[in-house]
Please model this.
Amino acid sequence: MSDSILSVTNLKKSYGKLEVLKDIDMEIKKGEVVCVIGPSGSGKSTLLRCLNMLEQPDGGTITLKGNQVFGDGKSQDLDVLRRDVGMVFQSFNLFPNMTAEGNVSIAQRKVRNRKGDFCKERSVELLTQVGLAEKVDEYPDRLSGGQQQRVAIARALAMDPEVMLFDEVTSALDPELVKGVLDVMRGLADDGMTMVCVTHEMAFAKEVSDRVIFMDGGLIVEQGKPEDVLGNPQEERTQRFLGLVLDH
Amino acid sequence: MWDHKDEILDGFWITIKLSLVGGFFALIWGLILSLIRQLPGKVLAPFRWITIGYIDVLRGIPLLLVILLISNGLATLASEGVIPKEIGIPQWLGESDPFWYGVIALTLTYGAYMAEVYRAGIEAVPRGQMEAARSLGMSHGQAMRYVIVPQAVRKVVPPLLNDFIALTKDTALISAIGLAETVQVGSDLYSQFFSLSGYTAGAICFLVLTLPLARLVDWQIKKQDEKFQRGIP
Model:
């Protein structure tokens, strides 16, 4: 498992009495694209948020590039972890007080300590990559949801992360804006980016992912190649879920 | 009364200086308090508690009492040699000691009020902003400085201005320790001539300051509403 980039063992998380994650083991390899699917409340978003410690797990370990960042109930060097793990949110969370370019530049400047000109150049390059070369100087409230989400992807990419986490990034978008965002993600997958995507886009999962994980009730119920999990699910819960999602 | 316009204007000038200097320090002190109050983690909890306690206590004591405690307290400590005379009886930058006692009392009390205003502004910034900033590897401090506070401050300009108007009026209380500000001058003129025109002139002076500020608050709120409702005909 030398090419494992992010691994999770026995991960647990509860909110009060509610056990959201019961016992999760997961291994993400370099360059792998993993889609996490499951009914709402299954713990998939919580799992993703634990991966960069936006939620503190109650138990288990998280290891990034061989460094244990969480274990024995303690975490280490969160800012370093987060630097290497990019995250894109359902609700974009762009900084409204900065332009698109400012959003992409700020962490480069303050966290990576890159020089201003270099940051700006890199930001424009990334915004061009996500199809927003025209929007560099616009503030977020002048952008559509799809454009905002693409800025958010560029912002996460600017940190040169080892892994990108996508938390239902198209769920808040109008249908006609979804494709633009998925195209950007497809491009990233083709470029070999390691990605973990919590998603309801089954077609995207089928087409892009190397592995699909189905979660329910805080556990990984089934995982495997997308054609197996989505095309020929073995577990009854997976079948029921896919029946409900694909049947409309 | 026109013969005494110089005294009245001198008093008014002291009121303006008190408001600006006290308001300036209260703005900064309030922001510091609100930031300490927002510090994350269990380790820093005692700092949060102390700050909350301070804010509660200072908001619960009349400003007049704070003024008396500060002026008499510092003067006593200085006379007993506990603290240097330069601090106990401050006469910095050519201003009198009652002026500085007033500035200190205004800062302590209005800092507590303004801390609550800042806090409301910080808490009104969506949670996702902090998460996005932290997910990029920013520290709590960096996230506060570059992302949260700039957004919070914009939201709280009108309520901060309201506090500033209240502070301006409360400078009148510092007449209690003999500072010749607007109200004190009015009282002096009253006891000399048994005429209310000193007070009347004082009231007009305050209105000259506070009315434009009240309009400014309304204008700021309107401007924010317009930004918020852009696109709706």
